[in-house]
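Title: Prediction job returns without error message
Component: structure pipeline
Severity: low
Priority: P3
Assignee: unassigned

Description:
Job completed but the reporter wants confirmation the result is attached to the right record. Sequence as submitted:
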Amino acid sequence: MTASADKRECRRDLWAVAGAVALFVLAAVVGRVVNRTVYGYEGILRLAWPPLDAWWLPHLGPGTPAALVVAALVVGWGPAAARRLPWRVLPLAGWGAAMAWTWSLALVDGWDRGVAGRLTTSLEYLQSVHRVHDLGAFLRDFTHHILVGSPGLWPAHVAGHPPGALLTFVGLDRIGLGGGAWAAAWCITVGSSFTAAVLVAVRALCGEAPARRAAPFLALAPAAVWIGVSADGYFAGVVAWAVALLALAATRRTRAPRLTALGAGLLLGWAWYLSYGLTVCVVLVAAVLLIARSARPLPYLGVGVLVWAVAFSRGGFWWPEGYTTLVERYYQGAAKVRPYGYFVWANLAAQVVSVGPAAVAGLRRAAGAVWPALRGARHTAPAGRGALAVLVAAGLCMVLLADVSGMSKAETERIWLAFAVWLLPACALLPARTHRGWLAAQAVVALLVNHLLLTAW
C-alpha cells in the first residue's frame, strides 16, 4: 500500500469513529429528551443516563492510580511485548494484564460499591443462594418462581436466566467461597480470561501474527468496565473458552481433537444454561467451522452440549419452558415501557463504549474482506485477514441478532459482553504504527466512563 493510500485508509478509520461517536451522542441526547418520568422511576427508558445503565457521578477511587499505571504500561510496552514474548507466555500475560485492568477499574468505585457489594443487591444471584438446598427440588420448581405474582418470586437476574447461573454461586458458597467478594473475584477471573481464550482462537484460525497484534487491545478492552463486576463477564469467559477449544479441535492444533471438541461442547452447553441469549453463539460456532473448513468436531461438540441438556431435563428443568416463561416475565417488567424504537439503535450506540474506537476502526477495515473470504471459502479455507474478518463478522452478527430480538432493551453494555469481545480482534487490522494511539484511545474511553459515571455494574 502506498503512503497516500495508507493515509486515506487512516482518514476513513477516523471518519468511522466519528460516526460511532455521533451515534452515541445522539443516543444520549435523544434518550434525555424521551426519558420522561414514569411511575416515579428513572424515566420511560428506566435509565438515569441513557443509553448506558449508569448515573452521572464524577469521582475518583482507590483503583484510579492502578488503572492509570496499567493503561500506561499496556499503551507504552504492550505492542512490543506482544511481538516478542514466547507464544506459550503471551496468553497468560494478556490474561494477567486484563485482570489487572479489570480489578483497577472496579476499584475506582471502591471495595464495597465496586467489588464486594455488586452481586449482593436485591436484583442479584446471591440473594437466592440460601434458597437452594435440594438440587432436584430446585430444578423442578425453578420455572414456577419466574412470573411476577408467583410465590417465592426470584430476583430479576435469577428469573432472567436458566438455573446454571444461580447454581454457580451456590457451588462457590458450598465450597466455602460464599459472599460478594468471592463472587466478584470469580466473575473477574473467569471474565478477564476471555483475553487468553480469544488469543488462542485467533491464532488457531487466523495465524499467530494477527493474534499477537490483537493481544494488547484484548488486555485493555473498555469492556472491562462491565466485566468487573457482573455475572455476564463470567458468561463471556465461558463462551470464549468454548470457542477457543472448538477452534483448536477444528484446525487439529491439539493432540486430542475429539476430546477438545467434547470439552468445547461441555462449555457451550453450560453457557446455554447460564443465559438464554447465548444460544445465538451458534453463529460463532458456524464461523469457526467455516474458517477451518471442517465439520469433524460437530458430533463431539453435540455430545458435550447434550450432556447438560439431559442432566437439567432429567433434573426437572425444561429449557424451552424456562425461556417462554422468561419472555412473559420480561414484559411484566421494564420492557413493558421501554420503547423498542429507541433501543434497537441505542443498544448499538452503547457498544461503542464497550468495544472502543479502535474496534470500530478495525471493523471498518474488516468489512471489505468478509465477502471475498466467504466467497472463496467454497474452495479454500479463509486465512489471515479474511479469516479474521469472518470471525469478527460473526461477532457482529450475534450483536445484531440479539438487538432485533427485542429481548435486550438496555443494559447491553453488560448483557452482550459474550458477543462484544469477539469484535475486539478487528483491532489487529489497524496499522502497527498506530497501535499505541488506538490503545490510548481505548484506555481513555474506559477511564472516562468509570470516573464520570457510576455504572450499575
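Comment from assignee: result matches the submitted record. The beta strands are 54-56, 453-455.
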